[in-house]
Design brief:
The complex is a heterodimer. By secondary structure, chain A is of the alpha+beta class. Chain A has ten helices and four strands. In chain A, strands 2-3-1-4 form a four-stranded antiparallel β-sheet. In chain A, a hairpin with a 5-residue loop joins strand 2 (73-81) and strand 3 (87-93). The chains are: A alpha+beta, B alpha+beta.
Chain lengths: 322, 460
């Protein structure tokens, strides 16, 4: 089977991408949204900007106004233009807006309610710093428990095929594949943070957990086939051959399912609600990574584990003889 | 074999009939979906409760009880009682806020408490659908009315002869109120507020009035003296009349605030979220559109790839969508933008079971089995991988539901429901559809046509 034969080619691609992502995450950092840091986000629609002489929205001007009024602005960014031509702008502050500052705040972004701009608040989100800390902790905790639960589940459900590779090792490999699947989209966010100011938020965490939920089933399907083939193992068949055969038997299914899910995600990204757009993009990258990892990473590494065990066994035998 | 096919067809027919009924119920007979604030608009306010007083009281109780326990040698579980007190206070807080919100007539408001182990905060979360003015929302939650009764002592300086007044705390306050009503002075016809005390307050009020006959009693509301009548005699009945310069409306408002009760613990607003309904309408429309397109894509792919089984899987998928939507309505699941996304993705994931089975059918056919044998074996052999892969997915959904914040919980619930129903859809619904169309053996009429229809879209 070509995947097992060329495993190093496929594995090195993953290793390169994961390393690149990790380097990006640690050198560039991730921009954390107000869900994590606490702060204020107000979304405002401006109907009137296009009617101005020189047209177009002036984000700098909004920022300047807010700073003049004494607010610490984290960012002012254009979310999109809606179908009616209005500009949807997101304004982010590092602190909160107290009731006494509210009037000042509204005056600042609405240009003192200048009818030229037709500014109107659409949504407002003020998050206290303690909520953010808790979210961070919950996010890590959830990912951790997913790993624990998956290892235990796979170790249990593959217990009958612990030869030649112990069933808990399948679990560990599945979790490694999951890590691979969430590191790649996180790396993408490190880049998007620099280029587009993309921030990680609750929905990002949700996307990572969803990627794991979908991707784990891919890996389990392949492992299940290995399990089935191991039970009917012919005496002259090597473990490597069994893994290879299992992969080719599940390849079409993996491809078809992933292709369908990817098309669904593209539909969701292009047509779905604005608030879940970044979410769909993260998922898209994660699902592609997940399909790749269950076929080209988890199972080939399984073969490596078996080879490594064999080598040790032979070594041990030699030692005993000596 | 032929008789069996008939049985399968009857079952498949009843499944279809059930599906029609299901969709009829869904479209006509069931309540509307419940949408979250992000889709319907509204305000969400998060307060942190200051429980330092409750904790201090516990601490005192603890030292007291530990001294008792040292003499009696009994262990007193103070930690448990402290927790109970906190829980009591939070429950009391929730009840009072709920009452206030309901009095304002906000429909389907949600008031809940939450404890964060990490920050050691007790939170109160209030969700007000349809209220998009944050000032109004904060007003609804309202401030705690602080009602205090104080005795005015007149002091005469022995040297100068000048008089001054001193306020003495009586310990009687709004916590001892039972019920207040608006009443009108019989002489002046001015509105006044009659407050009734509970048993403890009644006793306190009787004692205070008995001991201070001839003195003034100052009644403070939120720190301002609103009236200071002279005590004529002991009042044992437990009713006090506050005849401040009220308008009728003011008197009514005060009564409402007094009756909705003082909060057992102080709260401060830490987070808030306001969402306009227009944004949500757009999101709902977009979600529906994306969902329909996604469904169409899947249907086309399935029919292209798997021909007749693909078509049957599409019918099963329609039933799947119906079941999940009905669950959303009846459980009910509060749908947010993320929840809708979860559902749309789950539709994509739901066909995985079918794809696994259909690939397996092709594999078994290649081994030379006839359609009937191949499909029966395929369902049997695909079962372990469908089971285990779905259990793995569901475990992740469970972790989301159990450990996640509100957003993750909702998503986990939607996704988990989707996975369970998709297993049923693949293993039961699709199975009977396939059984109903598959000829009993290769000598049957139309077997060749059927075999073509079971082939892959990309091969012969």
């Amino acid at each position: 089977m070509f995947i097992v034969k060329n495993k190093w080619i496929f594995l090195s691609l993953s290793i390169v991408l994961v390393s690149a992502s990790l380097i990006l995450i640690f050198t560039q950092g991730l921009r954390r949204g107000i869900d994590f840091t606490g702060g204020t986000e107000v979304v405002v629609s401006y109907n009137g900007f296009s009617a101005n002489e020189d047209g177009g929205i002036k984000l700098d001007l909004i920022k300047e106004n807010l700073e003049k009024s004494g607010f610490t602005v984290k960012g002012v960014s254009l979310q999109k233009r809606d179908t009616a031509g209005a500009y949807i702008v997101s304004i982010k502050l590092t602190g909160d807006v107290s009731p006494s500052e509210r009037v000042n705040f509204e005056n600042a972004w609405s240009f003192n309610h200048d009818p030229h701009y037709e500014a109107k608040q659409i949504s407002e989100n003020i998050i206290g710093p303690s909520v953010g800390k808790e979210l961070t902790r919950k996010a890590f905790l959830s990912v951790f428990w997913v790993f624990v639960v998956i290892i235990i589940f796979i170790a249990f459900s593959f217990r009958k095929v612990s030869e030649p590779v112990a069933s808990w090792k399948y679990g560990v490999l599945a979790v490694m594949a999951l890590l691979h699947d969430i590191i790649l989209p996180t790396g993408m966010y490190a880049i998007l943070g620099k280029t587009h100011g993309a921030e990680i938020d609750s929905l990002f965490v949700l996307a990572l957990l969803t990627i794991m939920a979908i991707s784990i089933s891919d890996t389990v399907v392949v492992f299940d086939r290995i399990r089935e083939n191991l039970k009917k193992r012919k005496s002259n068949e090597t473990f490597e051959e069994i893994v290879g055969r299992s992969l080719s038997q599940t390849l079409l299914r993996s491809f078809n399912t992933s292709f369908a899910v990817i098309l669904v995600l593209i539909a969701l990204y292009a047509l779905g609600p604005l608030s879940t757009r970044d979410f769909s993009l993260t998922l898209l990258v994660g699902i592609i990574a997940g399909t790749y990892s269950s076929l080209f990473v988890a199972s080939p590494v399984l073969v490596l584990v078996e080879k490594f065990q064999n080598r040790n066994k032979i070594k041990n035998k030699k030692k005993k003889k000596a | 074999m032929k008789e069996k096919t008939l049985t399968y067809r009857v079952i498949a027919f009843w499944i279809l009939a059930g599906a029609v009924l299901l969709w009829y119920l869904l479209l006509v007979k069931t309540p509307d979906f419940k949408f979250g604030l992000d889709l319907n608009g509204g305000t969400s306010l998060t307060y942190v409760a200051d429980l330092s007083k409750v904790n201090q009281a516990n601490l005192e109780a603890e030292t007291a009880s530990s001294s008792i326990s040292s003499t009696t040698g009994q262990k007193v579980d103070t930690a448990a009682s402290a927790k109970l007190n906190v829980a009591d206070s939070m429950a009391g807080l929730r009840d009072i806020i709920e009452k206030r919100v309901n009095e304002f007539g906000v429909s389907e408001a949600i008031v809940r408490t939450e404890y964060s182990t990490y920050t050691d905060e007790n939170r109160l979360i209030v969700e007000l659908p349809g209220v998009t003015d944050i000032d109004e929302a904060i007003k609804i939650i309202g401030d705690t009315p602080i009602l205090e009764f104080k005795i005015v002592n007149e002091l005469t300086d022995p040297e100068t002869g000048a008089t001054s007044t001193e306020l003495v705390e009586t310990g009687l306050n709004g916590n001892y109120l039972k019920k207040s009503v608006v009443s009108f002075d019989q002489l002046t016809n001015k509105p006044m507020v009659v407050v009734g005390f509970n048993d403890e307050g009644k006793q306190m009020f009787a004692d205070i009035t008995k001991n201070n006959v001839g003195k003034q009693m100052a009644i403070f509301l939120d720190g301002n003296a609103i009236s200071s009548p002279v005590i004529q005699e002991e009042i044992p009945g437990g009713e006090a009349t506050i005849s401040g310069a009220f308008t009728v409306q003011e008197a009514k408002d005060l009564v409402q605030r007094l009756n909705s009760g003082a909060l057992p613990v102080p709260i401060t607003l830490t987070s808030s979220q306001v969402l306009e309904a227009t944004l949500g309408d757009q999101a709902k429309a977009d979600g529906l559109y994306a969902g329909l397109i996604a469904f169409a894509i899947i249907a086309i792919l399935m029919i292209l790839w798997y021909r007749l089984p693909g078509f049957l899987a599409t019918v099963a998928l329609v039933i799947y969508v119906g079941i999940v939507l009905l669950l959303f309505k009846t459980v009910p699941v509060v749908l947010t933008a993320a929840g809708i996304a979860a559902f749309i993705i789950s539709v994509g994931v739901a066909i995985d079971g079918n794809i696994l089975i259909f690939e397996r059918i092709k594999e078994e056919l290649r081994k030379g089995k006839n359609l009937r044998e191949a499909s029966e074996d395929a369902f049997e052999r695909a079962w372990t991988s469908i089971r285990d892969s779905n259990i793995a997915s569901m475990l992740v959904a469970l972790v989301l539901f159990y450990f996640g914040s509100a957003l993750l919980k909702g998503f986990g619930l939607v996704f988990g429901l989707g996975v369970i129903v998709s297993m049923f859809s693949a293993m039961v619904i699709s199975r009977y559809f396939i059984r109903a169309v598959v000829p009993a053996d290769s000598s049957s009429k139309g077997y060749k046509v059927m075999k073509f229809l079971f082939g892959s879209g990309f091969s012969k």
